[in-house]
Write a structure and sequence with these properties.
It contains 8 helices and 7 strands; from the N terminus they run βαβαβαβαβααβααβ. With 231 residues, it is of the alpha/beta class. It is globular.
Length: 231
């Protein structure tokens, strides 16, 4: 049975991704850093749930020692920051990058060891539409998600020869808890800018992630799941 690890996998896009992989017959492991309530709910659904801070190398090392070699890694763990640049402290900046970028790097590096031994594997990094077009008052977040796109493209070229594929998904405005900082009026205004006329669903992003993993001739690509926002 193939095994997938989904970071930040106990809610939102991560949990929806865990569900679709489980439906397709994968053994599913998810990790989380602090949301104990969501972690308990994920456990109740039968997923293997492990607490780990992806920005901490010791945590990541222990995580992979526990789960062993995997076939698919979904680097979904991420945090947002809604602040203008002049209000963004160095600590703010470093925290966003430590989770969104360093976390993906660390998990990819440890996952790669087993994938290289097998001669196959798939990694999907979850960026954001703001990594493509930039978001006002979200400079740190946008920059971190743009970094994931560059990471994906370079990494894919580096490991493709060894049978490991690396792709990236850039969700648009998705109805998840990450958007709780915006009012209903703000979300409605955002929906008006989207050609599809609505916010996306976590399940729609999850379906795109799974599709990238199943197609063995796709690597180094950035797939927008944004309702046409960046068309």
């Amino acid at each position: 049975m193939k095994q997938v690890l989904i970071t930040g996998g106990v809610r939102g896009i991560g949990l929806a991704t865990a569900r679709i992989f489980a439906q397709k017959g994968y053994a599913v492991a998810v990790c989380y850093s602090s949301d104990e309530r969501s972690a308990d709910q994920a456990k109740a659904e039968g997923f293997r749930v492990i607490k780990a801070d992806v920005s901490n190398e010791n945590d990541v090392k222990k995580l992979f020692q526990e789960i062993g070699n995997i076939d698919v890694l979904v680097n979904n763990a991420g945090i947002s920051l809604v602040k203008q640049l002049q209000d963004t402290t160095l600590a703010d900046w470093n925290k966003v990058f430590s989770v969104n970028v360093t976390g993906a790097y660390l998990c990819s590096r440890y996952a790669l060891e087993g994938m290289l031994k097998k001669g196959r594997g798939c990694i999907v990094n979850i960026s954001s539409i703001w990594g493509m077009v930039g978001g006002s008052c979200e400079v740190a977040y946008s920059a971190s998600k743009a970094a994931l796109i560059g990471f994906t493209k370079a990494f894919a070229k580096e490991v493709g020869y060894a049978g490991v594929r690396v792709n990236c998904v850039t969700p648009g405005a998705i109805a998840t808890r990450m958007n709780d900082c915006f009012s209903q009026e703000q979300l409605a205004a955002l929906a008006e800018e989207i050609p599809c006329g609505r916010l996306g669903k976590s399940e729609e992003v999850a379906a795109a992630i799974y599709a990238l993993c199943e197609n063995e001739y796709i690597t180094g690509q950035v797939l927008g799941v944004d309702g046409g926002f960046n068309a």
